[in-house]
Amino acid sequence: MPGDTDAATRLPVIDGWFADDDSGDTHLIAGKCVKCGTYVFPPRTDNCPNPGCDGDELTQVPLARRGTLWSYTENRYAPPPPYPSPDPFEPFAVAAVQLADEGLIILGKVVEGTLAADLKIGMEMELTTMPLFTDDEGVERITYAWKVAE
Ligand SMILES: [Zn+2]
């Protein structure tokens, strides 16, 4: 808003999928069934994904920040509009990371500078964020991403 000196300059692309904890580390947010404990990502508040459970209340919980690389690929073609894409297009890797405790596989972009040739199944991956694009108001929109764990 005009005159608002505290206007955010960085915002998530999608609200409610990830957040920073007190130490500034980013974690994903999942829905967890209060009845059977099944996790679901992206998070939702009802409709347990477990076909054997009729639970209809899911709490929002943080997910582990590290997981194991389960699969990956490299995108060499710019996505069609309306998906934002840098010009010129730069290839990027996409990783599917398995979170053992939660029983989830989370698909996400891999940070700039890491391509498929740098990845190996079974590697430990860590969650981070990266800018995706800058919107019309000059706000940098960020998304979650995977990087090779240090
Ligand atoms: Zn359930």
TrEMBL record:
<dbReference type="Pfam" id="PF01796">
    <property type="entry name" value="OB_ChsH2_C"/>
</dbReference>
<dbReference type="InterPro" id="IPR022002">
    <property type="entry name" value="ChsH2_Znr"/>
</dbReference>
<dbReference type="Pfam" id="PF12172">
    <property type="entry name" value="zf-ChsH2"/>
</dbReference>
<feature type="domain" description="ChsH2 C-terminal OB-fold">
    <location>
        <begin position="61"/>
        <end position="128"/>
    </location>
</feature>
<protein>
    <submittedName>
        <fullName>OB-fold domain-containing protein</fullName>
    </submittedName>
</protein>
<feature type="domain" description="ChsH2 rubredoxin-like zinc ribbon">
    <location>
        <begin position="27"/>
        <end position="58"/>
    </location>
</feature>
<dbReference type="InterPro" id="IPR052513">
    <property type="entry name" value="Thioester_dehydratase-like"/>
</dbReference>
<dbReference type="InterPro" id="IPR002878">
    <property type="entry name" value="ChsH2_C"/>
</dbReference>
<dbReference type="InterPro" id="IPR012340">
    <property type="entry name" value="NA-bd_OB-fold"/>
</dbReference>
